[in-house]
Amino acid sequence: MAPWTFHPENDRWVERDGTYVRGRAVVDGEPRDADVLAEQFARADTDRAFLAALERADGFYAVVSETGEGVRAGVDHVRSVPLYYADGYVSDSARWLRRQLDDPTVDPVAEAEYLLTMYATGPDTLYRSIRQLQAGEALLAGDGSIDTKWYFEYDPHGSLLDDRATLVDRLDDALVAAFERTIAVADDRPIVVPLSGGYDSRLIVLMLRRLGYDDVRAVTYGRPEAPDVRVAEEVADRLDLPWQFVEYSTEKWREWFDASEREAYYRTVDDFDAIPNLAAWPAVRELRRRDAVPADAVFMPGQTAAGVGGHLPEWLPDREQIAFDELIDYALDTHYTLLDWDDPELAARFRGRLRQRIDAPEFGPPAAMAAAYERWEWRERQSKFMTQDGRMYEFWGYDWWYPLFDPGFAEFWEGIPLAWRADKRLYEQYVEELYATVAGVDPTTAGRTQDAADSLSDRLLTGVKSAVADSPVAVPARSAYRWLQRRQDPRGEHPLGYLGMVPEEQFDRLYTGAESHHTFRTLEALGRISFDPPDESGYPDEVSLDALERTRSERKEDVEARK
Predict the structure, then answer these.
(1) SS3 for 515?
(2) What DSSP letter does each residue of 530-552 carry, written as one string?
(3) Which backbone phi and psi does 397 adopt, to 5 degrees?
(4) Is the CB of residue 3 less than 8 Å from the CB of residue 68?
(5) 116: closest CA among 513, 381, 326, 431?
(6) Distance (Å, rounded) from C-alpha 195 to C-alpha 471?
(7) Helices vs strands, H then E, count in the chain
(8) CA distance 334 to 27
(9) Which of 80, 239, 292, 376 is the most buried (most CB within 10 A)?
């Protein structure tokens, strides 16, 4: 068998003695750039030493060590720098791997899952023979064997049984420690925070202001009239932050999506595992063109370890016992939703995958079942879609860091009891209290967020949709909801104007009230529709394995691979 080899496509990898590192981390309290990390991992000459080195490196990075006949590879706790492997190769590009393989076949179940969720779960990708490392996972390959090991698993055990005041004090200590590490990584460089109207980015600017970091800047993007923009501007003003705004519109999205830079960006991040995250991409493009951000700036977006608790079922904490099948139903009802589907064969396949990957008992108390669900959510949506922003900033030449995905903060948050973790309850209360203290605002102002500023009609629509989701009136209510959505001009009303990327006539042909911008972007990423020129020949008439097979056309990558 030929020796395993590593092929880096991105030019940010640093190599030392056959060990490659991309990213940075804090080790033993000290920031380490890629060159120092590579030297440290190069000295880890056994599997056990390599796994121990991964456990000690707290940050956002990936590492690959060629060992002669084999390879050791690992991604960080949120998979912010993905790695893929197949047939003796490891690469940061699944597209490159695709070109090395002889006619790999599409995995139809993975494609269906991707179509409904915008990502492929577990170690799968769209192609059967190409695998991905999952968050906190290491690959140990050589001597004809391939093994993967978890060196990190998000485990929300909820064992901190202190009273609220003590929990708040401990939360404060954990955040101060995380932001001291963040400040050490920033090393006096300008910090740019994409500031929204929500709690997460607000917490970042509050902590940086509180700890006295000098050069903090905020940028907000969206439609000028969006509540998100108004609230973010108010926060920046109250904290005396330099604030820049990048205006979005449906018209601009056509230009942005058709731009050659967007196509080049997709070639770097569209790796058959998840659709690329585009929310901030036009904003950073515009800032770069204006020369409005220093070249050495570090972007720090608001993705947070506390987010998974915000996605738990509302009914979960109040129950005595919960069946595993109820968790699976909830996952299907909340994640597998980009298109309508009702195919028994797919349902059975999806349920089997969820049963294998959620790792819960058949029945259990709320705390245990919540932990199982959060662990799955961490590995899937959070680590495959939400943490893509780092590669987007790299595309435009900037460094980045996720302060609220700091491993130390994540480890602390694991201990928060379910009652305070659900809906990010303790976290959001803490942010409101900190905002009131740092900015000197009253409690009502401190609690003002994007959600609170949304229009009454938007809140009513969202509330009704949530309230009837599992009730006997769900089907007629869903029809009414879609009728209202169509009447609200959804193509022009999204706060980021996303749906402008879809030509108006094509949108009118395809939109039923059920589809989101994620639906159209997923269909486009799969090659099932095209925006320019408009084409829907691969749009399945139903979501089933037979329909997907019948309407599948060759992906551009398959054609390119044979050239």
Answers:
(1) coil
(2) EETTEE-TT--SSSSHHHHHHH-
(3) 90, 15
(4) yes
(5) 381
(6) 37
(7) 27, 20
(8) 38
(9) 80
Domains and CATH numbers, the chain: 5-150 (3.60.20.10), 164-306+386-453 (3.40.50.620), 308-380 (no CATH), 459-561 (no CATH)
Q: Give the torsion sign (CA, 407, 412, 414, 416).
A: negative
Q: Give the whole-number percent of the chain exceeding pLDDT 90.
A: 85
Single-letter amino acid code for the residue at 120: A
Contacts of 386 (CB under 8 A, 6+ apart): 277, 303, 307
Q: What is the CA radius of gyration of the chain?
A: 23
For residue 214, give both structure tokens. Answer: 């000098």
Q: State whether residue 85 is helix, strand or coil.
A: strand
Task: Kindly state the tokens that stand for 432.
Answer: 């409101």
CB 529 within 8 A of CB 523: yes
DSSP state letter for 302: -
Angle at 380 between CA 127 and CA 527, to 5 degrees: 40
How many residues in total does the chain contain? 563
SS3 labels along 36-77 = HHHHHHHCCCCHHHHHHHHHHEEEEEEEEEECCCCEEEEECC
Alpha helices, H only, 187-249: 199-210, 227-238
Query: β-strand 145-150 against 137-142: which pairing, if any?
Result: antiparallel
CA atoms within 13 A on the CB side of 422: 16
pLDDT in tens, 154-205: 999 999 988 999 999 999 999 999 999 999 999 999 999 999 999 999 999 9
Q: CA-CA distance, 467 to 82, in Å (whole number)?
A: 37
Separation CA 470–CA 475 (nearest Å) = 10
Q: In this predicted structure, what is the pLDDT of residue 3?
A: 85
Beta bridge partners of 299: 192, 400
Q: Which residues pair with 513 in a beta bridge?
A: none
Tokens of 493: 């009303």
Measured CA to CA, the distance from residue 401 to residue 467 in angstroms comes to 37
Contact criterion met (CB below 8 Å) for 57 and 32: yes
405-454 tens-digit pLDDT: 999 999 999 999 999 999 999 999 999 999 999 999 998 888 988 665 55
Distance CA 231, CA 198 (A): 8
Over residues 237-281, the pLDDT tens digits come to: 999 999 999 999 999 999 999 999 999 999 999 999 999 999 999
Closest CA relative to residue 412, chosen from 435, 430, 432: 430
SS3 category, 239 = coil
Non-local (6+) Cβ contacts of 432 within 8 A are: 199, 443, 446, 447
What is the number of alpha carbons within 13 Å of residue 276 lying toward its C-beta?
22
CA dihedral over 7, 12, 18, 21, signed as positive or negative = negative
Q: Exposed (0-12), middle (13-18) or buried (19+): which is 17, by Cβ within 10 Å?
A: exposed
pLDDT at 205: 99
